[in-house]
Specification:
By secondary structure, the protein is α/β, with parallel strands linked by helices. It has one domain: TIM Barrel, CATH 3.20.20. It is built from ten helices and nine strands. The protein has helices spanning 15-23, 69-83, 104-115, 134-144, 160-165, 172-184, 202-213, 232-239, 249-262, 291-305, and strands at 28-32, 90-94, 120-127, 148-156, 188-195, 219-224, 227-228, 268-271, 281-283. The chain is globular, with a radius of gyration of 19 Å. The chain starts with 14 loop residues before the first helix and ends in a 10-residue tail after the last helix. Bound molecules: iron/sulfur cluster (SF4). Iron/sulfur cluster is lined by residues 38, 40-41, 49-50, 53, 55, 97, 128, 154.
């Protein structure tokens, strides 16, 4: 019998357990690059992109827009087969850039290819909050009647001053609108947040837990800010390091636990940290540490602090 509302004994509403409950067995995500672009890079919203953006370096080797969706799925299945026990069921994860930034007919063409592949049981679609509308949501709602569908929005921050500083090209109001519209259509929502963005104090970051907790968010991913070399932000970090909190690993672990204590216990936490290879990073320097190790450290620390997700959540 679990002491927590999510029905298991981990101290947070863990994605792995949620996934098992949803699907009753192993399901593998396959990353796909379908060649979408981004309105913040192609001139519609801006040309330079977000100041930390570099989407190029970190795709798995099978994931490349020069290959068809079908070929990427085939190669993705092979790739994962070598590493893990065969899953048999897969989610097509449209990850790089803004995967709803195209006409509805183009979206249908791309997502149909994925949904039509044997073993694909759903779609995970990463996008920006300003790349969604009623027409597209109606389409996603229709697929979600028979498949798992989640729209993952890059919010990154709840502060417009931050969004402006990092050149996101959308506002927090756009994020709220996208989440509320998506929920109205009965489509699952995911959110991506970055902690450590310039100009944000630890207190400001923590205050966002209350804001996020009041929004219709099913799943959430957290990342510590990882500043990639040769980006605009890397230059900014060099010139004004005092504008960045620049978490140490231990400092981040205690911070994220403080955050999670304030977070709605119904929100499923999908990840706590990012793991860009250190050779790409201008900061912070945590050495070579994998996400699963960071997760184990967070869980150990939660145990030591005898705390849990939502402990100080106020409805
Ligand atoms: S929205 Fe994403 S792809 Fe577009 S510029 Fe920002 S980080 Fe890069």
């Amino acid at each position: 019998m679990s002491q927590f509302p999510w029905g298991h004994n981990r101290r947070f509403n863990a994605y792995a357990e949620y996934f098992k409950k949803c699907f009753g067995g192993r399901v593998q995500k396959l990353a796909i690059d379908a060649g979408f672009t981004c309105p913040n890079r192609d001139g519609l919203k801006g040309n330079g992109g977000c100041t930390y953006c570099t989407n190029d370096a970190f795709n798995p080797s099978y994931c490349h827009p020069g290959k068809s969706v079908r070929q990427q799925i085939e190669e993705g299945i092979e790739f994962h087969k070598k590493r893990y026990r065969r899953a048999g069921r897969y989610l097509a994860y449209f990850q790089p850039y803004s995967n709803t930034y195209a006409s509805l007919s183009r979206l249908k063409e791309i997502f149909y290819q994925a949904l039509n592949y044997p073993g694909i049981i759903g779609l995970v679609i990463g996008t920006r909050p300003d790349c969604i509308d009623d027409e597209k949501l109606e389409y996603f709602a229709s697929i979600s009647r028979s498949h798992y569908v989640i729209l993952e929005y890059g919010l990154e921050s709840c502060y417009n001053q931050t969004l402006e500083r990092i050149n996101r090209g959308h506002t927090f109001e756009d994020s709220v609108k996208a989440l509320e519209m998506t929920a109205r259509y009965g489509v699952k929502t995911g959110v991506h947040m970055i902690f450590g963005l310039p100009g944000e104090s630890v207190e400001m970051m923590l205050d966002q837990a209350k804001t996020l907790s009041s929004l219709p968010i099913n799943n959430i991913k957290f990342h510590q800010l990882q500043i990639i070399k040769n980006t605009f932000m890397a230059q900014e970090f060099k010139e004004k390091p005092e504008d960045f909190v620049n978490f140490t690993l231990e400092g981040y672990i205690d911070f994220i636990i403080d955050f999670v204590e304030r977070l709605n216990p119904d929100t499923v936490i999908e990840r706590f940290s990012g793991e860009v290879p250190p050779r790409y990073l201008a900061g912070p320097d945590w050495g070579l540490i994998r996400n699963d190790r960071v997760l184990a450290m967070i869980e150990k620390r939660m145990e030591e602090r005898r705390t849990w997700q939502g402990r100080s959540f106020e409805c």
